[in-house]
Amino acid sequence: MSEEKARVQTNEKPKSGKQKKNRFKGLQAEFRKIIWPDKTTLAKQSAAAVAVTVVLGVIIAIIDFLVQNGVDLLVR
Fold it and tell me: Which one of 18, 37, 56, 57 is CB 3.0 to 4.6 Å from 41, fit for a cystine?
């Protein structure tokens, strides 16, 4: 079977250097659309993420402590 027939049967597109260039141009265009945060916004968002992580960690630790003590009371 020739390469063209095999490509048609498997629905493969022929690969060319032009398609790769078009992909990179598309990526470049998408990266230009990104609006990066300024330093103060980045700092605020990072602080919020750390604070939420700490609070959730404390809540999980408290629940774990209560469940562990509850099981220990039931086992005794």
Answer: 37
Residue range of the domain that includes 19: 1-34
* 18-60 tens-digit pLDDT: 666 777 888 888 999 999 999 999 999 999 999 999 999 999 9
- Could you tell me the CA-to-CA distances from 73 to 4, 33, 48, 69, 70 in Å, in that order? 74, 59, 38, 6, 5
DSSP 75: H
24 and 43 housed in the same domain: no
Task: State the Cα–Cα distance between residues 20 and 13, nearest whole angstrom.
Answer: 12
